[in-house]
C-alpha cells in the first residue's frame, strides 16, 4: 500500500493561490484566477489538486471570541501522573471532547501537554479548572497562564 508523502512539493503559482486563499477563503474562482494570473479552468484544476493532495484541508469562518462571550484565553501546562500509552490515550481522547479547549499539544520538556482554552471570564475558568480539567484522566498538576494581550493571532502559514 502506497502512502502520501508528508511534504508535498508546490510551485510559485500554487504558493500564490494558497496565499490568496488564506487571505480570503470565500474568493470566487474567477477572482482568484485573475488575482493569480491564471485562466479560470487552470485555477480550478490547481485548487482541486491542492485539496486532493491534502494541502488545503478545508475552509472555515473565523469568529470573534469577544462577541461570543469567550474573550478570556488561557494557556495551561498539564502534567500527568504517569507517562504511559494508556494515560496519554485516555487524556487525549477526553480532551478532544471538551469544547473550551481550542488546541492541545503533547510537548517535550517539563510537562506533558499544553492547552489553549477560551472561556468568558475568570469565574468560568475557575469552574472549568475545578469541574473539568482536574477531573480528567491522569491529570496530576496544572499551571495556568492567562493572556493579557494577544500580540499576534493568525491562522496563515508562510507559503
TrEMBL record:
Keywords: Activator, DNA-binding, Transcription, Transcription regulation
GO cellular component assignments: cytosol
GO biological process, one term: regulation of DNA-templated transcription
Leader sequence residues: none
Pfam families, per database record: AsnC_trans_reg, HTH_24
Annotated ranges, domain HTH asnC-type: 10-71
InterPro entries: ArsR-like_HTH, AsnC-type_HTH_dom, Dimeric_a/b-barrel, Tscrpt_reg_AsnC-like, Tscrpt_reg_AsnC/Lrp_C, WH-like_DNA-bd_sf, WH_DNA-bd_sf
UniProt KW Ligase keyword: no
Organism, scientific name: Rhizorhabdus dicambivorans
Domain of life: Bacteria
CDD domains assigned to the protein according to its UniProt record, in alphabetical order: HTH_ARSR (cd00090)
Protein name per its UniProtKB record: ArsR family transcriptional regulator
Keyword Nucleotide-binding: no
Gene Ontology MF annotations: sequence-specific DNA binding
PROSITE patterns, per database record: HTH_ASNC_2
